[in-house]
Design brief:
Elements: H1 2-19, H2 26-63, H3 93-96
């Protein structure tokens, strides 16, 4: 009867070890540290930063709605910038004379 629980614990340890890719010891720990660090900087930190920015904007807009200005770059007109070929912006030479 005493050996059955030891066998169960051994089976659980074996299952957990195999499910982690069969790595043991320091290499297993190092791989989990690398995976956790990547997950933090690729998913957790950006979402926290975005949430913090949204809260700061909401607080600023709520405190003084006339002072708050959304910071966005204006979209350039593609025709004036020469990005669309064809009818370019024409200057009136008659007005200059």
């Amino acid at each position: 009867m005493g050996s059955s629980w030891r066998r169960t614990v051994g089976n659980v340890r074996s299952f957990v070890g195999n499910s982690m890719g069969g790595l043991r010891g320091a290499s297993n720990l190092a791989s989990w540290v690398v995976a956790g660090t990547l997950a933090y900087f690729l998913w957790v930190k950006p979402s926290q930063d975005l949430k913090k920015q949204q809260q700061e904007r909401a607080a600023l807009a709520a405190s003084d709605p006339y002072r708050y200005v959304e910071k966005r770059k204006p979209l350039p007109d593609p025709q004036e910038m020469g990005l669309i070929y064809g009818n370019k912006k024409k200057t009136d030479s008659k007005k200059e004379e």
